[in-house]
């Protein structure tokens, strides 16, 4: 092993606002260092960081000529309640994405994709 993952960093136009969105989804605490950098530490210590990128363009998805680039899978218990809550926080459901009975696809307020997943265990891929 060379090292360990410290943070996943998302580029965006409004770091503090996006950190607060994900705090609403995942819980934890937000530290806003300045207008260019905010960090969410979730209740078990995982870090999502948000970095100012004034010219950030959200990925185009689904689009055969575009790519998500990456996405977060957020495990939940009750899909209907979780969907209602993320939409209230400012997420948007991607209605033309391919889904099945274990995940639904959304965009965060900056346009990054994430999935709400349920009915899976940590050993599932």
Summarize the structure.
This protein has 125 residues and is an alpha/beta fold. It has 2 helices and 8 strands.
CATH arch. level architecture of the largest domain: Roll
How far do the termini sit from each other?
22 Å
Which term fits the overall shape? Answer: globular
Strand order in space, largest sheet? 1-4-3-2
What's the main sheet like?
Answer: 4 strands, mixed
Number of helices in the DSSP assignment: 2
Helix content: 10-25%
CATH class type of the largest domain = Alpha Beta
Overall radius of gyration: 15 Å
- Please identify the structural class as seen in this structure: alpha/beta
Order of SSEs, N→C? Answer: EHEEEEHEEE
Give your account of this protein's structure.
- This protein has a four-stranded mixed beta sheet with strand order 1-4-3-2, covered by helices on one side. It has a four-stranded mixed beta sheet with strand order 5-8-7-6, with helices on one face.
- About 20% of the residues lie in helices and about 30% in strands.
- It has helices spanning about 15-25, 80-90; strands at about 10, 30-35, 35-40, 45-50, 70-75, 90-95, 105, 115.
- The chain has about 120 residues and is an alpha/beta fold.
- It folds into two domains: about 1-55, Signal recognition particle alu RNA binding heterodimer, srp9/1 (2-Layer Sandwich), CATH 3.30.720; about 55-125, 2,3-Dihydroxybiphenyl 1,2-Dioxygenase, domain 1 (Roll).
- The longest helix has 12 residues, at about 15-25.
């Amino acid at each position: 092993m060379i090292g360990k993952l410290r943070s996943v960093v998302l580029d965006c136009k409004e770091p503090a606002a996006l950190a607060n969105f994900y705090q609403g989804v995942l819980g934890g605490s937000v530290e806003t260092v300045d207008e260019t950098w905010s960090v969410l530490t979730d209740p078990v210590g995982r870090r999502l960081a948000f970095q100012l990128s004034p010219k950030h363009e959200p990925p185009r998805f689904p689009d055969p000529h575009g790519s998500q680039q990456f996405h977060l899978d957020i495990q939940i218990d009750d899909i209907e309640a979780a969907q209602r809550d993320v939409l209230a926080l400012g997420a948007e459901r991607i209605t033309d994405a391919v889904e099945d009975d274990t995940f639904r696809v959304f965009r965060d307020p900056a346009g990054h994709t994430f999935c709400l997943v349920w009915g899976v265990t940590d050993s599932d891929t």
